[in-house]
Design goal:
alpha/beta; SDR_fam; 14% strand
Length: 246
């Protein structure tokens, strides 16, 4: 298991699902963890409590990733509260599905503001603080590599942008030993996409393994990239999708 003792991580959208599992896994590996949430303060505090039960420090902050001032304050606050920043996990995201000819401009702007601009601004703010050997890890989506159903144009476009951002950051920050990678989850069993939901059977059918993944399975890959074992991986797009792209 990777050792992250002495490291500080910030997980955006860390109050539930993949974000919560990632925050807890990084803490289990030894990191102190800051996590952002947008709506459910109670759930964020429960995750923070789990981090503290593991003997690590935790800090929660409300942040709307579409608001530039929130994003900057989130990163700066994490550094002020926990003393440094070594790992940023750009997990917060927004999914809006629908026919391309029908989606209103407000939805387009909001999805790109959260999924692309928010991730960019978080990475920009983090780059000012990251210690040498830092880690940027962005949570993409399996639909960037294969879109097996209609109505996902907006979401796929926004998540695909993370690949270009991550590759550019990998080049730009390499001299400092900082890595940047994208993890593309497949269908994951969360409250936003439950394994017993109305579209779950179809989603399972798109994967080679024929099942939903678990948030911990994404968190394990993030933890590997965040730790010493990930020091020579950068600019990569890693599918943890049960064979969705196979």
């Amino acid at each position: 298991m990777n050792s992250l003792h002495g490291k500080v991580a910030l997980v955006t959208g860390g109050s539930r699902g993949i974000g919560a599992a990632t925050a807890l896994r990084l803490a289990r590996d030894g990191a102190d963890v800051a996590l952002s949430y947008q709506q459910d303060k109670g759930q964020a505090e429960r995750v923070a409590g789990g981090i503290e039960e593991l003997g690590r420090r935790a800090w929660t902050v409300r942040a709307d990733m579409a608001e530039a001032t929130d994003v900057t304050a989130m990163v700066d606050g994490a550094v002020a509260e926990l003393g440094r920043l070594d790992i940023l996990v750009n997990n917060a995201g927004l999914g809006v599905l629908g026919p391309v000819e029908e989606l209103p401009l407000a939805d387009v702007d909001r999805v790109f503001a959260v999924n692309v601009r928010g991730a960019y601004l978080a990475a920009q703010a983090a780059a000012r603080h990251l210690a040498d050997g830092g880690r940027l890890i962005h949570i993409g989506s399996c639909v960037t590599q294969r879109v097996p159903f209609p109505g996902a144009s907006l979401y796929a476009a926004s998540k695909s942008a993370l690949t270009g951002l991550s590759k550019a950051l990998a080049r730009e920050l390499a001299a400092r030993g900082t890595t940047s990678n994208v993890v593309h989850p497949g269908p994951i069993d969360t409250d936003m996409n439950p394994a017993d939901g109305p579209d779950a059977a179809a989603q399972r059918g798109f994967t080679a393994l024929g099942r939903h993944g678990q948030p911990d399975e994404i968190a394990a890959t993030v933890a590997h990239l965040a730790g010493d074992g990930g020091r020579y991986v950068t600019g990569a797009s890693i599918a943890v999708d049960g064979g969705h792209a196979a």
